């Protein structure tokens, strides 16, 4: 069952808004174009809107592109229980969306948390997802996040996170799951927090002088962990925003005020609790994916990262070893001068990579 309406956001009448019934919840979707189905899954703190540039490019190239608000976001249902955000439910949502659209197979593309969902969907449901593209976060197996020293989830995620953070800091995902702490920080100033996060983790933020001379591709896992301890771990009692880069007087070219207003309005309306629940489930996800350990990712697969994306940098080992676990993996693509928000920061380069991969299927 679904309801469909023309969605004129961004002045593009090709965008059609749909409300789908999938996996027992309501899923908000925006689609464009006709042809083979490409399902787009966003990350944190994002929205279907994060894929607006890809929706247009895919539609122009003859694909049926569908971007969804993930569970807990936007106009999609927001279950109250933390365990309702486990990876198996997120994958089931994507399977349900494919079927609700009247299709049986799709290519799935994910960014950030959406990458973890996309990789897991293609890994566990190759009968539905015939190919996969992960953006920013490499395939991480049971561990989802492809952390240094734990590329494919060989160990429980919380153990590795605490090891990276050390005794006197909190790994940022542990901060996100500290009861009420991150929620309070985000809700106190959604506009300020979102603006700071989008800018700080982009390539527009100035790079520390000491980092400019480092070849991150040559760092050991221990050195990468030390870098992460400084970059994304916080002393207890310090907010995440305290470590963000100072905002410039003018927004970067890839982020307009209209874009920012859309994101802020969505989170002011829906809050951050649902999205943060994804992080609460990481250890549970690791347990749920145990039956798949050692099973290869069978379908054609591509990873696209940013040369200044911290998630791409920390996933270096997983990216290098990708062919070991994905026999149909394509050569990874790392886009220079790009940070974490590739769909926004480098839409033309990402679109080119997507279309070349799809054409080769």
Gap between N and C termini: 30 Å
The general outline is globular
Taken as a percent bin, the fraction of beta residues is 15-25%
How many helices? The count is 17
* Number of extended strands: 11
Mean pLDDT: 92
H/E series, N to C? Answer: EEEEHEHEHEHEHHHHHEHHHEHHHEHH
The unreliable regions are 1-8
Which strand order spans the largest sheet, edge to edge or round the barrel? 1-2-3-5-4-6-7-10-11
Structure described in brief:
The protein is of the alpha/beta class and 361 residues long.
Description:
- This protein is of the alpha/beta class.
- The protein has 17 helices and eleven strands.
- The longest helix has 14 residues, at 87-100.
- The protein is globular, with a radius of gyration of 19 Å.
Task: Name the features.
361 residues, alpha/beta, nine-stranded mixed β-sheet, two-stranded antiparallel ribbon, 40% helix, globular, disordered N terminus
Question: Secondary-structure blueprint of this entry?
Answer:
Elements: E1 2-6, E2 16-22, E3 25-32, E4 37-41, H1 52-60, E5 64-68, H2 87-100, E6 106-111, H3 113-124, E7 129-135, H4 157-165, E8 170-171, H5 172-177, H6 181-188, H7 190-200, H8 209-212, H9 221-232, E9 233-234, H10 257-270, H11 273-280, H12 282-288, E10 301-306, H13 310-314, H14 316-320, H15 322-325, E11 333-335, H16 342-345, H17 347-359
Parallel strand pairs: 4-5, 4-6, 6-7, 7-10, 10-11
Antiparallel strand pairs: 1-2, 2-3, 3-5, 8-9
């Amino acid at each position: 069952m679904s309801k469909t309406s023309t969605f004129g956001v961004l002045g593009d009448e090709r965008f059609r808004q749909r409300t789908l019934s999938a996996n027992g919840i309501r899923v908000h979707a925006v689609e464009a174009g006709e042809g083979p189905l490409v399902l787009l899954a966003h990350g944190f703190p994002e929205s279907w809107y994060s894929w607006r540039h890809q929706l247009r490019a895919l539609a122009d190239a003859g694909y049926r592109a569908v971007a969804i608000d993930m569970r807990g976001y936007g106009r999609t249902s927001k279950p109250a229980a933390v365990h309702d955000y486990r990876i198996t439910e997120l994958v089931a949502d994507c399977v349900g969306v494919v079927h609700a659209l009247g299709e049986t197979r799709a290519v799935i593309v994910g960014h950030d948390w959406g990458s973890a969902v996309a990789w897991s969907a293609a890994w566990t449901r190759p009968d539905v997802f015939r190919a996969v593209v992960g953006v920013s976060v490499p395939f991480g197996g049971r561990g989802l996040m492809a952390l240094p020293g734990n590329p494919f989830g060989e160990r429980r995620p919380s153990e590795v996170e605490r090891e990276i953070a050390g005794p006197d800091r909190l790994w940022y995902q542990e901060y996100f799951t500290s009861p009420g702490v991150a929620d309070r920080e985000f809700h106190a100033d959604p506009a300020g927090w979102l603006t700071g996060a989008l800018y700080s983790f982009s390539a527009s933020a100035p790079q520390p002088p000491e980092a400019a001379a480092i070849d991150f591709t040559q760092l050991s896992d221990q050195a990468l962990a030390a870098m992460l301890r400084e970059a994304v771990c916080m002393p207890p009692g310090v907010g995440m925003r305290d470590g963000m880069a100072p905002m410039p007087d003018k927004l970067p070219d890839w982020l307009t005020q209209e874009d920012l207003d859309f994101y802020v309005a969505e989170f002011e309306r829906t809050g951050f609790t649902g999205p943060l629940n994804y992080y609460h489930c990481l250890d549970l996800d690791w347990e749920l994916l145990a039956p798949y350990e050692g099973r290869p990712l069978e379908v054609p697969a591509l990873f696209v990262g940013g040369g200044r994306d911290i998630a791409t940098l920390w996933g270096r080992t997983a990216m290098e070893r990708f062919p070991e676990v994905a026999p149909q993996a394509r050569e990874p693509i790392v886009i220079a001068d790009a940070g974490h928000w590739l769909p926004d920061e480098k839409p033309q380069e990402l679109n080119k990579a997507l279309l070349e991969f799809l054409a080769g299927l």
